[in-house]
Structures are given as structure tokens and as C-alpha cells.
Amino acid sequence: MSDREQWCELVRKHVHDWNTPATAKIWSPALEALPREQLRRIQDEKVAGAYTYLWNRSTFYRQKFEQAGLGPDSVRSVEDLPRVPVTLRDEWLVDQQKNPPWGTFSPLRQEDWLERGWMMFSTSGTTAAHPRSFRHTNFDREMWAWHGSRALHAMGVRRGDIAINCFSYGTSVAFWGLHYALNHMGIPVISGGGANTERRILFIETYKPTVLLCTPSYALYLGRQMQEQGKSPKDSSIRLLVCAGEPGACVPATKQRIEELWGARINDDFGCTEVAMSPFGYTCEYQVNREDGRVDTHFMEDAYVPEVLDPETFKPVPDGQRGVLVVSNLFSEAQPILRYVMGDWVSLTREACPCGRTHARAIGGLAGRYDQLIKIRGLAFLPALLEDSIRSQQEIGDEFKLEITHVNDMDEILLTTELHPGASMDDLEAQEQRLSRKLKGSLGIVVDVKLVPPGTLPRTEFKAKRLFDLRDRRQ
Hints:
This is Phenylacetate-CoA ligase. Pfam families: AMP-binding, AMP-binding_C_2. GO terms for molecular function: ligase activity. It is built from 14 helices and 20 strands. By secondary structure, the chain is of the alpha/beta class. The strands form five sheets. A nine-stranded mixed β-sheet has the order 4-3-5-6-7-8-9-14-13, with helices on both faces. Strands 19-18-17-20 form a four-stranded mixed β-sheet.
């Protein structure tokens, strides 16, 4: 048996409840609700297998391991993981530039790709000259589908539902991961990826889907477009939203807006193209129905090992303390990467969730990356915190733009935001001053406000960019 076959066989060994959920609330209690010491034994075995697979088949990682003084048997458990240096995105960029087009970090070889290849994916933040692209196999597709089924089951998706998938039909992982997960569950799918908004509204009216899959930004936009046509999202067939691409359920004000608009619960499905393609993080029914405003994100720990590290030293931080998220993939044929710095700013709890799952959770969800942490007048903010404060103001609409400049040795913040549809355009100056005072009370900084009519600011179907730091770093 080849090293590749040994790795895939090890992954299959730890698959339970492949075709159908074992219980009404948890797809695979044998994995999702097992005692943590048993979970650790599964992780230990898979960490050792992934390390051996990379040692034998990845030029990039063989060199990385040897430079760290490691040998072929140096990593046998989760406890040994800190011996492996973390991997940064820029290291892969350099590797792909030196070894185009795929680089040498993946253990997947050209003959594997030609024999068992499924699809190529790329990130949304690539350069034109050297797109950051990743190949995956049919084995990976099957694992994505099974992992995605487990996450969607936790959110409340069930046989009898119909889903409309509004993620872009392209090389991003969201559309495909969710599509194949729904197929695996036996859920009919209306593919809205290539349709425009008008046609998607027609699909919802005509075919009565019950589950809407899209970004949080698009959920707001789609619902408002229905309202402009005299149709009520709340009275539509949609009963559940699954959102990815940007924080949604974990941003309280955004969650409230979307749920009030649609009369349906919103869930977060979290991953990344590089290392956590199938759901790494997901919400459960208990978390999205909490009344205290906090929504934790479950991590699928039989498929991944999450670590939370100090961003400067890359040393572990205690549970409950914030740090950067580092992830090891324990299932992929093409990308079983150890210790990739995803960079999200999170804190962990390993206490069991009332839903019955025992895997670790991100407290309050995943609200942004550490490299997006921005300092304004000495205070540090994640974009999601700013979004929550802005969207909690009921008199304004869904879209906004926040621009930060530096004038006369002082940071200046300008919020350009739309009025809520139907709001009065009279005495805008007084409304702007009132909103500015409210934001200072919630954020602790002065924010200048410019109100514009509804429909002024651009909309997006994918990841929205609303924060623009225009300060000259040379000053």
C-alpha cells in the first residue's frame, strides 16, 4: 500500500455514520459527542499520519521539517505539533512563484491530479500574476460532502428542505462545499450561482426553497430587493439561512437585521480555501437561539486541530484568551497541512455545548482576522465590532462605508451610511449629529457621519469591503 493509500485509509478508519445521521440533533455522536480524551486519540493518530504523508510526498514540507531539525518520526501526536514551525500564507506564495503553477507544498502530484482529480479552487485575495490555486481530488470531494452534511445537520437542515445556493459559481470553495453536502444529505438544490437577483427572487417565489445559502451582505440585499418589489422575505418559504464568506450570526446587530428581515434564523459556515475547505467552523441550533447575544462557533475537531497562539511569539495562549487561529487539516488527500496560520482573532472554550457536542468552540464566533485589527486613536477594533455598533442603529440602512484618515496629527473617521428605506430625508444635519453622538457612546471615539439616500452605496454578492484605512503609513 502506498503512502497516499495509507493516509486515505487512516482517514476512512475514523468515518462514522457516513450516509445518514445517527440522531435527530447530532449526525455522528460517535465523533461529535465523544469524550475529549477519545477525541485526542483520534487526533493523535491522524496527526502522525499527516506528518508522515507530508514528509514522504511534499518537497516544501520535507525541507521545512528538516530545517527545524525534525526527522521522519518526530511528530507522533498533537503534543508534538508545536515542534512543527507554523506556515504563513506568504511562504506558499513564494513556493508557487518558484514552482508554478501549483508549488510543492501539496503532497498531490501531477499523476494523482490526472488520475483522481476533482477540481481546482483559488482564493479571493490573489494577485493576477500568480493566483493562489489549489487542486483537490474525488476523495476530498467525498470528505467535504460528509463534513458539510454534519454541519448543516447541526444547523437544522433536514430531509424535506429545499435549498437555494446563491454563492458564486466559480473557483471559491463555498458554492461547491455546500452543494455537495446538500447532495449527500438528499436535499434538493436550486442552483442560483449563475442567476441574477431578479431570477433568484423568481426561484424563491416559484419553487419555494426553505434554506437560503449566501453571504450575510447578500442576504440583506436580496431581502431588500424583494421588499422594493412589494414582496415580503418574512412571508416567503425561507425558514433558515446558511451564511459564509464574512461574519454573520456572530455579529449581533447583523444577525438581528437579517433574522428580522427574513423571519428565519441565520447560521455561520466557516472555512478557508487554503486549509479548512469543508466546514471547519459551524453554528448549531442551540447557539443561534441563545438569548444572551453570544453565538459560539463549533470546530470540527476530528477533522482539524485548532490552536490559539500569541500573534508575536506563536506560543499557546490559555483557553478563554484571545490569540490567532492556527489550523491543522486531518483529512485531505491534497491539503493535509499542519499548522497553517489562518489568522482569525479568537478565543476557545472546550466545555461541552448544551447541544451535546464536545468539540472546542470559538467564543462569540469568528469575527475577523488579526491582520484586520485596526488601531484608531490608540484603540483597537475588529471590523466586525465596528459593524455591530453601526448596524445596531435602527434608523440607518444596511450599507455603509467607513473611511479612516489622518489629518493634523489626528485620526479622523467618516461613516457614510444609507438611511433606512422610508426614513425622512429632512434635517439630515441633525440626524447625522445624533447618530455621531450615539456611535461615540458605543465605540468611545468620535465618528463623523454622512447620511445618503437608500441605494447610493454599491452592493455585493460576495465578501463586502466596507472599511477603508486611508492613512499614510509614512507619516
